[in-house]
Amino acid sequence: MTAPLVALTDQTLGWGGQAVLRGVTLQVAPGERIVLLGRSGVGKSTLLATLHDRLTKRTALVPQDHGLVGSLSVFHNVWMGVLDDHGTAGNLRCLLWPRRSERSRVEGILDVVGLAGMGRHRVSRLSGGQRQRVALARALLRGGEVVLGDEPVTALDPAQGAALLDHLGGRFATSILALHDVDQALRVATRIVGLRAGGIAIDAPATELTEADLLALYR
């Protein structure tokens, strides 16, 4: 039997000394595509952060606040995804004088997310949707075994969001995504974890769930 990538057993999760979720038992197996659903503030971000902290494999993260540095260029924000692959001297040199090969590598990813030619633009001047694309590009450049995303496509229209979720699915073997769109969840997930009233209310294969089952999480 394949060992789980991460496992939680009867855990109380929260922040600032305040419990948000109680009795959380959850395992993530390699190759799963898990979507977290539930009302705003129910604890999706808390659960996602806990899983991220406890994963030991290489992971890419798309945080809800994007995690970008507004004063830097799109290129440099995307390149942050691979900073830990290079030494201090190399990263400093790239900050000041990026090589053509490095810019080309990032440009290829920017083309995928719909930001072709924008590598030199300052992030502070971008729209919310463009910033979300930068965060997605950073995750795609980083790569790894697992991607975690906290509402990673909320600023995009449904068609754009669906396409970029598909790119994440093609780049990473395992994904754990907090989404708000039930239709998207049923389309991309192999398993759905629904949160309600301070705990896990649903944990089942997506093929066994209906839209009505999931909408009950929001009542």
TrEMBL record:
Return the GO cellular component terms, semicolon-separated.
Answer: plasma membrane
User: What PROSITE patterns is this protein classified in?
Assistant: ABC_TRANSPORTER_1, ABC_TRANSPORTER_2
UniProt KW rRNA-binding keyword: no
- The entry's keywords: ATP-binding, Nucleotide-binding
SUPFAM superfamilies attached to this UniProt entry: P-loop containing nucleoside triphosphate hydrolases
Which InterPro entries does the entry mention? AAA+_ATPase, ABC_transporter-like_ATP-bd, ABC_transporter-like_CS, ABC_transpr_LolD-like, P-loop_NTPase
In this protein, which residues make up the domain named ABC transporter? 6-219
Q: Which SMART domains match?
A: AAA (SM00382)
Q: Which GO terms describe its molecular function?
A: ATP binding; ATP hydrolysis activity; transmembrane transporter activity
Q: Which domain of life is it from?
A: Bacteria
Show the stretches that span the lipid bilayer.
none
The answer on whether this UniProt entry bears the keyword Nucleotide-binding reads yes
Q: What is this protein called?
A: Phosphonate transport system ATP-binding protein
